[in-house]
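Here's my example:
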Amino acid sequence: MNALLFVLILQSDSAELERIAVQHGDRIKPLDTFARELLHAWSGSETFSSFRDPETGETVEVFAGGDPVSAILDILWRPDASARKFVRIQHPELKLRLGLPEARQFFSLDEIDARLADLAMMHRQSAGRTSRDQGPLDRAVLALASAYEEIGMLRSGNLLRIVPVEYGPRRAWVYPELLRRTLHPAEMIGLRQGEGGAETEEWAAAAEALSRIPREKLREVLDAYDDLKKGGTASARLANALREVDPAKLPSAKLLDSEVRYNRAKPFTRAAALYGLTFVLFLFAAIFGSRILWSAGLVAQVAALGVHLHAYAWRWEIAQRFPLSNQYEAMLALAFLGALMAFVFECVLRSKLVGMGAGLVGASMILLADAVSDFSPHIRALPPALQSVWMTIHVPTILMGYVCGALMAVLGHVYILTFLFAPKKEETLATLDTTMYRILQVTVLFLLAGTVLGGVWAKEAWGRFWGWDMKETWALISLLAYLAALHARFAGAIRGLGTAVSSLLGIVLVFLTFYGVNYVFGRGLHAYGFGAGSVRAVVAFVVVEIGIAAAAVIVSLGRSRTPAPQA
C-alpha cells in the first residue's frame, strides 16, 4: 500500500486509535502518549515529520503529517520504515567513529545496521565504565544503543502491549503477536513440547493467562488488529474488542481522552505566553508610569496563574498523583510558586518591578523545563521512595524558598544594572533594596522550614534525620548563606548593593543545590548520575553571576575612592 495512503487512513481513523491503552514502562497510557514518548526519544520531537538535509539542502520527508501514532505504526508495520531517517545522532565523534556524515543529524536503521559491529564494540566499552567515568561520548553511545534496541522491540511487536491480560512475574500485558501464537494450534504444540527456551516460557505463561479469557473475544481482538494492519478502518472495532477482554484493567475512557487532549493542548506553554505578556505590561507600566498598564499587568498575571494552576491540576489528574516527582515537575512548581509569590509582593508593594520579576520567573522556568534535555516532560509512575505524604509537604516548602531566592536574584540583577548605568535613580534603588530585604526574610523562612521537614522525611525513609548526604549538605550551605545575608542586612553591615550581591551569590548556591547535586556532582541519595547534566552550563552560570557581582563591587569601590567634585 502507498505510504501516504496508509498514513491518511490511519489519521482518518485516529480518534479511537490514539486512545487505546498501552502498558509501557511503569504505567498504562494512551497510544498517543506512547507514540509521542518514543518518537521524542528517538528523533527529539513528538511530531517528527521531516528535516532539512545539510548535504543537499533539500527537505527530507520522513513521516507524512508528523502524526505520532501514524509514525509509530509506520515503523511497526511497514518494512520500508528501516530506510526512514528518524534516529537522531548529535555527538560529532560518535558519527565520526561510525562513519556517518557529520553534518547530518538524522539517520536510518539501515545506516545503523551497516555499522552495528562498531556500535556494539563501543557500547561494550561505554557500559563497562562507571557513571562517574562516562563522558559525553559514552552517554551518546549508550543512548543510541538503547534507542536501537527499543526500535527493534517495537518492530518485533513486543513493545505494543495493548491486550489487557497480565502474565508472568512482571504482570506484563500481552502484545498482539504473542496473542497470535496462542491462537494457532501448531504454535501451541511447540509450546507444550518445550521448544524455544525463554520465548517458549513467555508464550506458555501468556497462554495460561489467556486461557481464562473467552476465545471469541481474543479472536475479535486479533482480527481487528490485522484489519488495521492491512490499512482498514478498524480502530473503533479494535478499541471495543480490547475493552471487552477485561474492562477492569483499563483506565477510564474519560482519563485516556483527557491525556490525549493534554498532549495536544500544551497548557504550560500557554501559561508561559501569558507570563511573558505580564512581563511586557509591567515593563511598560514602569517606563510610562501608567496605572492602567499596571492594572492590566495584574489581570494578565491572574490569568497566567489560573492557566498554570489548571495545567498543573490537569497533569495531577492524568498522573493520579501529586505532580512533583522529578526535576521537570519541580520546575513547573517553581514557576507557579515564584509567580504567585511575586504577585503577592506586587499587590502589597506596587513596585511594578516585582511584577516584571513574576512574569520573567514564570515564563523562563517553564521554557527552561522544556528546553533542558535532562528534564523529561513525560509522566512517570511515582517511585516507592517518593510515595510519602512528606513529598507534598517538604518539596513545595523548599521550592518556595528556592523561588523566593530566584525572585530576589531577579531584583538583584535589576538593582545592579540600575546602580551601574543609572546611579542617580536613588528612589528606584531604595525601593528595590526594601523589596529584596522583605523577600530575603521570606526566603530564609521557607528554606529553614523546608530543610527541617526534609530531615523529618529522611528519618522516615532512611532512619536518620541528617546524614550529610550531598543534597543535605548543599541545602544547609544555601540556608546558611541566606541567613548570613539576613543577619548582615539586619545588623546594617550590608545594604543596597550588598543585598543585591548576596542575592546573586545565593542563587548560585540554590542552583548548585537544585540542579548540580542531581545531575552534575553525581553523589548521594538524590543524585541522578555524575555528569548527566551540562557541566558547561553550570560553570557558565556560576562564572557569569560571580562576574556580575564582582563588577558591581569593583565599580562601587571605585566610586567610593573618587573624590566628590568641589562646589
About this structure: Residues 3-156 form one domain. The beta strands are 21-24, 27-30, 50-52, 59-61, 85-88, 106-108, 163-167, 172-174. Residues 133 and 530 are 8 Å apart (CA to CA). The chain has a mean pLDDT of 88.
